[in-house]
Amino acid sequence: MANILWIQGGACSGNTMSFLNAQEPTVVELVTDFGINIIWHPSMGLEIGEQVTNILNDCIEGKIVVDIFVFEGTVIQGPKGKGTMNYFCERPMQLWVKELATVAEYVVAIGDCATWGGIPAVPPNPTESTGLQFHKKEKGGFLGPDFISKGGIPVINIPGCPAHPDWITQILVAISTGRIKDVLIDSYHRPTTFFSDFVQTGCTNARAFSEKVSGGFGKRGGCLFYEVGCRGPITHASCNRILWNRHSSKTRSNHPCLGCTEPGFPHHDLVKGSIFKTFKYLGFLPKEVAVGENKLSHYFKSGVGKIIGTDKKLFVGSK
Question: Cα–Cα distances in Å, from 238 out to 2, 13, 221, 257, 301?
């Protein structure tokens, strides 16, 4: 049995709601089939007020063993590092986070806010918000770059705004069954099971991308990368392999990927107003191209694809 304690920091509740929609496995199956005991959860916990305070103190004092500490939401450190902009159970939330992370066997950050600060950490960041072990692209965050949980691994990051529910439950299962050390994580501590491919993998507009067929809102059959800022080719996530509600995804519903599983979200180092807009050189060459691809090579292949299309035979031998 694994004991899970889930608490919620600043500016976020979407991941809690996402978690409750999990299907493989469901939240009920976590409890009934995998022996997970939920010590407390913001939406499912029966305890309120002083009862919650007592639970947290019992966890810190070792009276209740915390196998998995799940944190959702940004760590608010303002003003001036005191954390008094975000109180929880009569204390700054950051104090609970530090102490619970210390006693937990494993620490899991859920959603963009918890992983690297998310939208609240966008400059000028008046609340001094940050993630558990990253601040945007820089390793460090609230717990520091060298933090290692009692289980011997750093914070496990499951980003997204919100994170896909099955990403969450499947990682919790891996921990509860003793297989988490077999799960590889990337440089941003994301499980490669879910974050090695790109959103473009499985996208129904992938052919339009290779043929450089531009799409737009309400226009079926085109790729949203070229005009409305879709970040599918440069965002690590399995949204088109593990569909949302087992049915669809942003790009399949003709909405551009916003890159919410990357630490640069929401602006991705682009100028303000970058959402729903593809920035270009010379008015027609995309400023950003697919990860791992040379820009000149991309421009050449896209140009050829635009002219001939991928369904045409380039070379046909005479009979």
Answer: 27, 22, 21, 12, 25
CA separation for the pair 264, 275 (Å, rounded): 12
Tokens of 84: 């008094």
H-state helical runs in the chain:
14-20, 27-32, 50-60, 93-103, 111-116, 165-176, 192-195, 206-210, 295-308
Check: CB of residue 266 under 8 Å from CB of residue 119.
yes
- Fill in the DSSP letter of residue 191: B
> Cβ contacts of residue 163 below 8 Å, gap of 6+?
15, 18, 110, 111
pTM to 2 decimal places: 0.88
Determine the Cα angle at 163 with ends 159 and 168, to 5°.
Answer: 95
Phi first, then psi, for residue 307 (nearest 5°) are -80, -45
130 within 8 A of 142, measured Cβ to Cβ? yes
pLDDT in tens, 276-288: 877 666 555 666 7
User: Could you give the CA distance from residue 77 to residue 82 in angstroms, rounded to a whole number?
Assistant: 6
129-173 confidence digits (pLDDT tens): 999 999 999 999 999 999 999 999 999 999 999 999 999 999 999
pLDDT digits (tens, 9 = 90+) for 8-17: 998 677 898 8
Q: CB neighbours (10 Å) of residue 184?
A: 10
Q: Where are the alpha helices (DSSP H) in 83-152?
A: 93-103, 111-116
Q: Which of 37, 52, 35, 96 is nearest to 71 (CA)?
A: 96
Per-residue pLDDT tens over the stretch 225-284:
888 889 999 999 999 999 999 899 999 988 999 999 999 998 887 766 677 877 666 555
